[in-house]
Amino acid sequence: MEQANMMGPIRFRLVHLKRVTILAVVVIVIVSWYISSQPEKSPRTKTVAADTRKMEHKVAGSSIHDRGVAKKRMMGLRADGANFTLDGKPVRLLSGAMHYFRVVPEYWRDRMLKMKAAGLNTLETYVPWNLHEPKKYTYNFKGMLDLGRYLDIAHEVGLWVILRPGPYICAEWEFGGLPGWLAHIKDAIRTTQPLFMDPVEVWFGRLLSEVVPRQYTNGGPVIAVQIENEYGSFGNDTAYMERLKKILESRGIVELLFTSDGKQFLISGGIPGVLKTVNFQTNITEKLRKLRKVQPDHPLMVMEYWTGWFDHWGEDHHLFWLESFEMNLVKMLEMGASVNFYMFHGGTNFGFMNGANTQHNRGGGRTLPTITSYDYDAPISETGDLTPKYFKIREILKNHTPPGVVPENLPEPPTTMGKFDYGRTTVSKALPLDKVLPLLEKPVSSHSKHLGLGYGYMLYVATVQVKPEELSVRGSIRDRALVLINDIFVGEMNEDISTLKIDPTQELIKGEPPYNLKILVENVGRVNYGSSLKNQVKGIIGDVYINQNVEVPEFKVYTLDMAEDFLQNLTEYAGWTQGTAAFEVKTPAFYRATFTVEGRPKDTFVHMFKGKWEKGVVIVNHHNLGRYWNVGPQETLYLPAPFLKEGENEIIVFEERTAAAEVLFCDKNSLGNNLVYIKET
What's 212's DSSP letter? Predict the structure, then answer.
């Protein structure tokens, strides 16, 4: 009994000691792995670039490009020292911007494969709130807006993703991506005021349900998420930025967060403890040194290296001089910077989604709208063609990055699909503006508080008892207005022209009262940058007077935004004027034609300039290609093959002023003959 009593405690102590020993070994292994996986602490600032190249050489043999397998990862992207690390290994981010909402989904994979073939390892995209939530609490994540599918394709192709969800994105996009229904909150835009922040929180809750499962640490491609966008150029309220950070984190974002600004706004647009990145096109050494001075213990990241520039209507076409582009890219790579090419593939501002800037233009008016094409002089053109800039990037990335950053044997890019000239088609039907009214939604009163929040056009209609010889707006017109009396065009008004003299001898509007007054107001695109974001309600802002002293008490206001329901009504409407009589219809009016596609559809262009049309919108099979305007520089509208079908296709043109008898197609894009080259200064 005594022997048994003695062996029990001894056996217990041995078992306990064995368990403690095993536990200690496990702890040591975990701690050792954790220490070895941490990035090196930053050396002195002057050695950052050299150490970056040294660490990249260490992973020359590692296959950092083999991705696409969905599995949990222990660590995501880190920016704790001189270098970015991913899964604890140094990495140089070579990224390209492509916005899914500017490219038809059928071409997403093609463009991504071309990006990867150029040596890129990352894809960057904004998220347009206004398209995803066109009406409050009504969401759209289908077709061209299927963000989840877009991220999944990037993952399959083997590209990491940098996501820039806003809520404000700039991007030369309508209202900087903010929904038009928020325009009425004015000074609350981009602040912590509930009028703005409450809708943001609800929107982010819906958006991030698409993103969180696709984060890198969850086995997906998303490695970094941006907080707001270039906020330093708009304000300096750290509380606002901190609030957005908290929203992102509270809804499941665990990947690297960062901000993005021009060099003079790095501090005002940043958040303490959050990585800062810089945007620029020229003078790169100065700007990267500024970024390094602001945050010496973090990697250099150029979030926007502008590969070209955008165009406004009435301006020349902008190009970035290739030699300057090449020189700057080599410099930033030699300084150890990661880079995102903005844009790598620009795409198209389909529909009414072009943005605008605020300044005087040659034709008058303070709003300067961006053209429909967002080609941007990017390495991959608007239509998917590979430019000399593309091949120069491919060459530079292979020759000016350490071994292992870019694969030695890059894949060949996919073959670009050819373009086709579908000839010309004759207009067969026309429909004047007054006949369109029954097809539109019911009008609202001009006294409504919810006017001016939509897109496209607004038609103001009133009956007046005095013959108009002068029309004036005591307030402002946003942005352009065509004035019609008894459906006869009598003149144009805009932001700078608020008074219109009407020829009293105008024979076509003679007769006794009442007179029918129509004012067609175009929202040419909401401003996407600067303080003018606070003042983007569109339409007639103020009161309308006839002959200086007779106020028009009220208008009925119709919305003409080319929505699907309206287009369907238009297609099915039996009241079109047909045959030769169609050419007698007075503008503004709709014109209809058909054309036949034999075999598999191909990309093509509608040449509105050569066709002698003046200003309006082109719609093909209910796809709004965007605006055209003979002031240039853009002369053609891109018509991607997925918008077409084999057999008969419908084309509808809404022309404001001067219609033509035919619609012309061609196989080459024309974005302007007068060129402006951007060079290093």
Answer: G
CA 620 to chain CA centroid, Å, is 22
Does 454 have pLDDT greater than 90?
Answer: yes
- Per-residue pLDDT reduced to its tens digit, 532-576: 999 999 999 999 999 999 999 999 999 999 999 999 999 999 999
Angle at 80 between CA 79 and CA 84, to 5 degrees: 35
Tokens matching residue 20: 């403690």
Name 603's bridge partners: 419
- Candidates 651, 595, 572; CA nearest to 619 is 651
The rounded distance, in Å, linking the Cα atoms of 619 and 653 is 6
Q: Is the pLDDT of residue 15 over 60?
A: no
Q: How far apart are CA 654 and CA 96, in angstroms?
A: 36
Residue 131 to residue 178: CA distance in whole angstroms: 9
| 70 pLDDT tier (thresholds 50, 70, 90) | low
Calculate the average pLDDT of the chain: 90
Report yes or no: 132 and 140 within 8 Å, Cβ to Cβ: yes
Q: Percentage helix, strand, coil, to 5, in the chain?
A: 30, 30, 40
pLDDT tens digit sequence for 208-217:
999 999 999 9
CA-based nearest residue to 183, from 173, 195, 201: 195
Q: Report the distance separating Cα 608 and Cα 618, nearest Å.
A: 9
CA distance 89 to 651: 54
For residue 360, the one-letter residue type is H
CA distances from 647 to 601, 602, 667 (A): 9, 13, 19
Q: Mean pLDDT over residues 28-55, rounded?
A: 37
Active site members: 230, 304
DSSP code, position 379: S
- Beta strand 160-164 with 122-126 is parallel
Span 618-623, mean pLDDT?
Answer: 98
Structure tokens at 481: 């207005």
Confidence label for 339 from pLDDT (cuts 50, 70 and 90): very high
Contacts of 653 (CB under 8 A, 6+ apart): 427, 590, 591, 592, 593, 613, 616, 617, 618, 619, 659, 663
**Euclidean distance between the first and final Cα of the chain, in Å?**
97
Mean of pLDDT values over 196-215: 98
Report how far residue 515's alpha carbon sits from residue 20's, in angstroms, rounded to the nearest whole number: 97
In this structure, are residues 398 and 386 in contact, taking their beta carbons and an 8 Å threshold? no
Predicted TM-score (pTM) of the model is 0.89
Closest CA to 277 of 256, 260, 290, 295: 260
How many contiguous H segments (helices) and E segments (strands) does the chain have?
12, 35
Please give the average per-residue pLDDT across 449-466, as a whole number: 96
Tell me which amino acid residue 463 is: T
Q: Does residue 633 have a cis peptide bond before it, meaning omega lies within 30 degrees of 0?
A: yes
